[in-house]
């Protein structure tokens, strides 16, 4: 079993490093790789080969999860270019963005306090649309412009919205 543990996640699956990934090709490559390296295939091999198969399967699983999800894929691409988008110490968020988030938080609290499912639904829809727009911006900044610092800034905003959407989901649960 000849394995290069230094390959990046994209190379592991035979993909070109890019934010826009053919998810079907990723799934297919992952399944093929899993067939080759699954630890069960090495049950009768030596202990060293068994350990290596477990390490390789773990690496393949981690790489697959990183590439499958847009946020994780963008973070990984940025890391490949030396930028940890989620590390503390980056420039502060734009004030207009933060003000919109504060207003959204207030609207969320009001919707929950009033058990207003319609308001919660509207808030969720607006936030999902904004999150999708931000992901499209990240794609353009990464793949189109190779503006990695700009992509990191937009990705941090996207992460903010992702957390807010999780809070909206919890709000639905609280109201039931």
From TrEMBL:
Domain J: 8-80
Keyword Chaperone belongs to the record: yes
InterPro entries assigned: DnaJ_domain (IPR001623), HscB (IPR004640), HscB_C_sf (IPR036386), HscB_oligo_C (IPR009073), J_dom_sf (IPR036869)
GO CC term, one of those recorded: iron-sulfur cluster transfer complex
Keywords from the named record: Chaperone
Key word Hydrolase present: no
Superkingdom of origin organism: Bacteria
GO molecular function: ATPase activator activity; protein-folding chaperone binding
A single GO BP: protein folding
Quaternary structure annotation from Swiss-Prot or TrEMBL: Interacts with HscA and stimulates its ATPase activity.
Function field: Co-chaperone involved in the maturation of iron-sulfur cluster-containing proteins. Seems to help targeting proteins to be folded toward HscA.
Homology family: Belongs to the HscB family.
The name this protein goes by in its record: Co-chaperone protein HscB homolog
Top-level taxonomy: Bacteria, Pseudomonadati, Pseudomonadota, Betaproteobacteria, Nitrosomonadales
